[in-house]
Design a protein that fits this description.
Elements (H helix, E strand, L loop, with lengths): L12 H10 L3 E5 L3 H9 L4 E4 L3 H4 L11 H12 L6 E5 L9 H15 L3 E5 L5 H9 L4 E6 L5 H4 L9 H17 L3 E5 L3 H10 L4 E4 L7 E4 L1 H4 L17 H18 L10
Parallel strand pairs: 1-2, 1-8, 2-3, 3-4, 4-5, 5-6, 6-7, 7-8
Helix pairs in contact: 2-4, 4-5, 5-6, 8-9
């Protein structure tokens, strides 16, 4: 049964909690620049994630690890200038919060002050608990991230589904409860079994947003460049491509090149 969608002039962390209470699913997509963010926001997406996936999508790195705090602030600043409605969450990049809680707080403050972002996202469970608490005490909203945590890829050694074994599943459920108790306003669950994700979503009062975590959670997030088909090498089971922009853009660029070579562009009506 569909749930009536409430209109939010501006989406806030409270809006997301209300959505969960009302049974309204939360939509979330990534953006890293002004133009894309303007389109995503205009489409009515609830949350824009300025993800450290910019390291892969925008810079071509193999992992999310190389992107810096300064680069994340640059991307987030570009996104903030475009939006009117969406809640903008900014990833704390690898190396900006793992060393100690004071460093984590300094990083979070820089993101909020220099980019204008609305909240930060951090990967991990009990190992980052003290950092989360320190950031929250400064009045900065925190979104958690459990399951497959890409910043720990060299620890895992693979991007395969996480928490399939009972021990890891139990630890994930405990971490989710800890994140809620610590004060996180939402949790992202990445690439875990759908049944486990549903259990977690039911066990906490804060929204749980999934990516490769099934339909039993409170919302979904995808990398925008993947779902519109600008990328074409990445084909996980959880990805639905709504367009094939790679092909359409390739065709457009090819046609433009041919038109320039032939002298067809610009024509009479395209010059002064």
């Amino acid at each position: 049964m569909s749930v009536a969608k409430k209109e939010y002039k501006r989406v806030t962390v409270k809006s997301l909690v209300d959505m969960k209470k009302n049974g309204e699913k939360i939509s979330m997509l990534t953006a890293y620049d002004y133009t894309m963010a303007k389109i995503v926001d205009g489409a009515g997406i609830d949350v824009i994630l300025v993800g450290d996936s910019a390291s892969n999508v925008m810079a071509g790195h193999e992992t999310t690890l190389p992107i810096t705090l300064d680069q994340m602030i640059y991307h987030a600043s570009s996104v903030i200038r475009a939006i009117h409605r969406a809640l903008v969450v900014v990833d704390l990049p690898f190396g900006s919060y793992q060393s100690d809680p004071k460093e984590a707080l300094r990083s979070a403050i820089r993101i909020m002050k220099e980019s204008g972002g609305h909240a930060v996202k951090m990967e991990g469970g009990k190992e980052v608990k003290d950092s989360i608490k320190r950031i929250l005490h400064a009045g900065i909203p925190v979104m958690g991230h459990l399951g497959l945590t890409p910043q720990s890829i060299y620890k895992f050694g693979t991007y395969t589904v996480r928490a399939k074994e009972e021990e890891e599943a139990t630890r994930l459920k405990e971490d989710a409860l800890m994140l809620e108790k610590a004060g996180c306003f939402a949790i992202v669950l990445e690439k875990i079994p759908a049944k486990l994700a549903q259990e977690v979503a039911k066990s906490v009062s804060i929204p749980v947003i999934g990516i490769g975590a099934g339909s039993g959670v409170d919302g979904q997030v995808l990398v925008t460049h993947d779902m519109v088909g600008m990328t074409h090498e990445f084909n996980p089971r959880f990805l639905r491509r709504y367009m094939n922009l790679y092909e359409e853009m390739t065709n457009a660029f090819t046609q433009y090149g041919e038109d320039v070579k032939s002298g067809d562009f610009p024509n009479e009506s395209e010059q002064y």
